[in-house]
Amino acid sequence: MFLHLGLLLLSVLATSTAVIMIKASAVQPVLLAALRLLVAAVALTPIFIRDYRRHPYMTGHLRASLLPGLILGIHFISWIVGARMTPTANASLIVNLVPVVMPFFLAVLLQERLTRNEFLATGLALCGVVFLTAADFNLSATYFVGDMICFISMLFYAFYMALGRKNRHFATIWLYLVPLYYFAGILCFVISLFFVNPLQPYSTQDVVLILGLGIVPTVIGHSLLNYAMKHLRGQQVSIINMGQFVFAGLMAYALFGEVPDWTFYPASLLLLVSAWITARDTGRQT
User: Fold this and answer.
1) Which of 19, 62, 138, 165 is least buried, going by the fewest C-beta atoms within 10 A?
2) CA-atom Rg of the chain in angstroms
3) How far is CA 275 from CA 28, 175, 224, in A?
4) Alpha helices in the chain (DSSP H)
5) CA 124 → CA 72, 96, 110, 277, distances in Å?
6) Residue range 166-191: average pLDDT?
7) How far is it, in rounded angstroms, from Cα 283 to Cα 165?
8) Nearest CA to 244 among 76, 46, 19?
9) Cα distances (Å, whole numbers) of residue 161 to 99, 234, 241
10) Are 40 and 48 in contact (CB under 8 A)?
11) CA dist., res. 72 & res. 151, Å (int)
12) What's the pTM value of the predicted model, to 2 decimals?
């Protein structure tokens, strides 16, 4: 279980880099989401072929990847739009407020109920949310619009994560994720055609950022996140995954000079405490 927790923390760190690279890129948001997903899918295709030869599956398994692929595509598009309209720390936090709604998805899809520690940890995490977002709402109406887009994106993210736990029966995580990434990437690419011509010159910086988004927060971050949903309790993963906003806030300060509001610090402390509490449940039945 400690190995699974370690991999989850690595996924949190990797996924938190996404908002930094998104802000640094000039690529149209929908196209950026498509290219990110397709880079991840292509990079993982050799592993998928290897695992498929070992564990061939029916078309029903392939269909199981389509709905989460659709949800992930919508999440990526809405998050990229929202992340460019609000401060980095707030965007990363709001989109990862999954513990607020995850219990409902887990109950409906898996009949998985929260433990006492998970209730307590969720409450502490929500206190952190109040600290951070209360200050945000007083800053600017523009930030409020961005926050609302990120909130809608968060709902899709929670659904996507819950589906990852529901589909944990796949022989390997790659048999589930690679078709998912391909479908989400193609969906975003088709939608992007209504907004921008993808056949355009890309700067060296944008090429590096596209590759970086595909490999670090997607291949590493999202893949390990789905791996954690397979081996750990859903609410545990959703609470610890909120740590993205802590890493993102620190990176935004170092790279962009974005100084977090004072509320960022108590919110971060409450999140760390809630993550520690829920981590104590790692020995429970998953």
Assistant:
1) 138
2) 18
3) 35, 30, 17
4) 2-24, 29-54, 59-64, 66-83, 88-94, 98-110, 116-137, 141-166, 173-192, 204-213, 223-231, 234-241, 244-256, 264-279
5) 27, 15, 24, 10
6) 93
7) 17
8) 19
9) 11, 8, 11
10) no
11) 14
12) 0.84
Q: Which two structure tokens, joined as six digits, stand for 69?
A: 């692929």
- Cα–Cα distances (Å) from 89 to 102, 110, 119, in that order, read 21, 32, 25
Residue 80, phi then psi, degrees to nearest 5: -60, -40
Cβ-proximal residues to 233 (8 Å cutoff; 6+ apart), any chain? 112, 115, 118, 281, 284, 286
What would the pLDDT profile of 59-116 be if each residue is shown by its tens digit? 677 888 999 999 999 998 887 788 778 776 677 667 767 888 898 899 988 888 888 8
Helical segments of 55-115, H only: 59-64, 66-83, 88-94, 98-110
Q: How many CB atoms lie within 10 A of CB 128?
A: 25
For residues 202-214, b (16+ Cβ closer than 10 Å) or e, as one string?
eeeebeebbebbb
> 180 versus 12: which is more confidently predicted?
180
Q: Quick count: other Cβ atoms within 10 Å of Cβ 276?
A: 13
What pLDDT was estimated at residue 131? 72
The answer for residues whose C-beta is within 8 angstroms of residue 181's C-beta and 6 or more apart is 37, 38, 40, 41, 44, 69, 72, 218
